[in-house]
């Protein structure tokens, strides 16, 4: 089996994105309790199966993508996708959800 170390910067980015994804899951569940509606049809299907299916399903989907990108750590495109696309998107999503909780909650 071939193994290689993941550069610390890539590992940090991947873990930060996964952590922000978990925040997104928690905030989404809070918003749903307050009457919000999930607009993503795939996530709505998972929610119909229950909160555990939603949490696991969303985290597995995002985690798989992040790990696949991080595995290509030698690629500048992979690094850019983590640093300049996924991290900002998940950070902005978390900030937006906090803002909504402050306004609506």
Q: Give the number of helices.
A: 4
Q: Which quaternary structure do these chains form?
A: single chain
Cα(first) to Cα(last) distance is 51 Å
Order of helices and strands: HHHH
Number of spatially distinct domains:
1
Percent range for β-strand residues: under 5%
Shape: globular
Task: Give start-end ranges of low-pLDDT stretches.
Answer: none
Secondary structural class = mainly alpha
Mean residue pLDDT: 93
Radius of gyration: 15 Å
Could you give the count of β-strands?
Answer: 0
Biggest β-sheet, characterized? none
The helicity comes to: over 70%
Strand and helix map with partners:
Layout: H1 8-33, H2 41-49, H3 51-70, H4 76-104
Helix pairs in contact: 1-3, 1-4, 2-3
How would you portray this structure in words?
- The chain is globular.
- By secondary structure, it is mainly α.
- It has one domain.
- The chain contains four helices and no strands.
- The protein has helices at 8-33, 41-49, 51-70, 76-104.
- The mean pLDDT is 93.
Summarize the structure.
The protein is mainly α.
Tags for this entry?
mainly alpha; 105 residues
């Amino acid at each position: 089996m071939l193994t290689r170390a993941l550069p610390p910067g890539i590992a940090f980015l991947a873990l930060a994105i996964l952590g922000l994804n978990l925040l997104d899951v928690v905030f989404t569940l809070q918003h749903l309790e307050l009457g919000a509606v999930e607009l993503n049809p795939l996530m709505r299907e998972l929610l119909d199966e229950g909160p555990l299916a939603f949490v696991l399903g969303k985290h597995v989907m995002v985690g798989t993508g992040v790990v696949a990108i991080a595995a290509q750590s030698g690629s500048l495109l992979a690094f850019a996708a983590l640093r300049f696309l996924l991290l900002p998107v998940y950070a902005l999503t978390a900030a937006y959800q906090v803002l909504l909780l402050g306004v609506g909650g």
